[in-house]
Amino acid sequence: MAAEFDYEEILKATDNFHPTRLTGKGSHGLVYKALLFKDNLEVAVKKPSQSLLQDNEIRVFSSLRSDEIPHPHVLQLLGTSSYYYGHEECDSFKQKHKVIVMELMPNGSIHDWLHTATKTPLTWPKRIEIAMQIARALQFLHERKPLVIHKDIK
């Protein structure tokens, strides 16, 4: 079962979603690197841009957590954290939002490795190894019931 993290802890862990903590931008939101002090654990915190998409993402990742043995090349959902956002003076206009707490890709994304000048270029055998790992992860997702179609491979 995914954990519910305290939003104040998430704010502290991301330095209030400071731009220096930003590790990625996707079509559905921003991803920040965070250090959960209580557990001394580095995680990724995704702040979705639309709550409807985020609910679906949480549902999909939650279904993957039900596996006894997680796939080694598919990030795991660790939990969520809820907060309310809206008009300061009227609680009835505030809406509940969630951020998603995921495993962190400690070595960065494949995009970073292929397109960032500060990284040492990957050898062709290493690129082939990574491509095979991605293919296995996609096969795992596509064989799910219901199947998972992922359009944003990192």
What can you tell me about this protein's structure?
This protein is an alpha+beta fold and 154 residues long. 31% of the residues lie in helices and 27% in strands. It is built from 4 helices and 6 strands, in the order βαβββαββαα. It has a 6-stranded mixed β-sheet with strand order 1-5-6-4-3-2, sandwiched between helices. Strand 2 and strand 3 form a beta hairpin. The longest helix is centred in the C-terminal third of the chain and has 19 residues. It is globular. The protein starts with a strand and ends in a 12-residue tail after the last helix. The relative contact order is 0.16. The model has no long low-confidence stretch (mean pLDDT 81).
Amount of beta strand: 25-35%
Strands side by side in the biggest sheet: 1-5-6-4-3-2
Q: List low-pLDDT spans.
A: none
Quaternary state reads single chain
Sketch the topology as an H/E string, one letter per element.
Answer: EHEEEHEEHH
Helix content: 25-40%
Structural class: alpha+beta
Q: What is the mean predicted local confidence, pLDDT? A: 81
Rough outline = globular
| C-alpha Rg (nearest Å) | 17 Å
Could you give the count of β-strands? Answer: 6
For the terminal residues, how far apart are their CA atoms? Answer: 25 Å
Largest sheet: 6 strands, mixed
> What's the tally of helices?
4
